[in-house]
Amino acid sequence: MQTGKDASVTPFHSQFSNMEDERGHNLLRKDESKGSDCREKRETRISKENLYMVLALWMERFPLQSSRVQQKFKKVGVVFVLPSDRVLAADCSRDGVHGVARVMVNHCGKLEGCKVFVSRKPCSLCAKLLVQSRVSRVFYLPIEPESENKGELARADNLFKVSPVGQSVFVPCVEEGVLAKDEKRLPEEITPDDIGECRDQLFKEWWSAEWIKRAKVCLPWPCLDDSMENQVESDFKSLMKWIAFVKAPMDKGVAFKKVKVTEAAEAAEVKCDRDAEHYPDFNMAFHMMIFAKMLARQTDDPKKGVGAVILNGTENKEVATLGWNGFPSKALFGEFPRASDNDDARETKFSYVIHAEQNALLVRNTKDLTDGVLFVTKLPCDECAPMIKLSGVKTVVVGETIEGSTPKGGELSYYLIREYIKEEIIACYQMETQKTPTKRLGSDPETRKKMKSSDGSGMDIGSQTAINFD
Ligand SMILES: [Zn+2]
Ligand SMILES: [Zn+2]
């Protein structure tokens, strides 16, 4: 799990693992001594804490964020995790309100004991609020703080010093094994170059070598020397690569098109016209689908990972909940083959897995999901569809092409969602991937120019390609 080297970079990692799932963790530790073989089979996925941190970072790109709040403060993405290990909120700075402050106002009374993942070291206002709300600990990435003003940084540190709330710089790290596994699952048309390019773009957006040089004096980080700097930089790069595995294929160009269900032969057939309606907010769909796909990689069932996230509110969209498919929390590996690739275990584990949509609905931070939008990586099954309908969600955006799919797939069936689409109870959009956009993109000078001028934002690129390939 953690090598000695990592532990010296960030002692919080190992501390975390114990907090996360004590029983499962202890079991893993025992097995480690038996050799790497059985380890490889079960836990090759990003740690939950790294996932929360990357989601916080990704929320900086939420389409409704304001790039700067009150001018001198950088945008910040936040994820609050309840003591029960459920995500309470994911948000970012917007509407002139700091990310942390938004969660404080929207979820007051629920914050005590939360673990807080903020993309950047909080400013003194946010520190004040965090300390007052009695969260348990605040983690932030080693990237530039929300405010670089020295006085601000010192004030924030003083606030934490006099309170029981801990703050820690969090050095993300995705192990090689996890990256290697993700690489194997990439679609054929995605080359290592595509991944490298995407990773570098993300890295450039967030990493500043100049800042890390100053980090030792600006942060309570006594051990940051040259070799550690390099390690921290390379660990951060591994996280960017982890995002790139999801994002690079979507950068090739995707569209979110409305599907229809027609009464064809025996099975209701899902159809999508060439000129079908698009999901009205491409940037939002693009952003949230990456979010959902990142969640899917936390699954207990690597062969069928599903991620789901629900946005509610018509104008000021809020992340109401998120989930992935897995066994009941705190279940042991011995009880269920957590994160196992073993096919033999499939049948026995199948009916025990709690679907991503179900998990999301169980932990949502608001009861009212009227007009909510569900972004889910795969089409909801007959177990989940009635629950989605009941929750008030009216729109489902699916992260795969469902046109022509069959209503009976393996152990699960998908009749109800078809019925709801046909009866217009639910509007459903499918994500279509552009198969051969690379050449056409390159050959179109107009598109190239747009790509260059979009300041490295993949969302803009995606948006352009989607329009170009309609
Ligand atoms: Zn702030
Ligand atoms: Zn389901």
Automatic annotation (TrEMBL):
Keyword terms, alphabetized: Hydrolase, Metal-binding, Repeat, Zinc
GO MF terms, alphabetically ordered: dCMP deaminase activity; zinc ion binding
Pfam families: dCMP_cyt_deam_1 (PF00383)
Domain of life: Eukaryota
Cellular component aspect of the GO annotation: cytoplasm
Domain CMP/dCMP-type deaminase: from-to ranges: 57-156, 283-423
Class of the enzyme per the UniProt entry, highest EC level: hydrolase
Segments for region (Disordered): 20-41, 436-470
Keyword Transferase part of the UniProt annotation: no
Protein name per the record: Cytidine and dCMP deaminase domain-containing protein 1
Organism: Desmophyllum pertusum
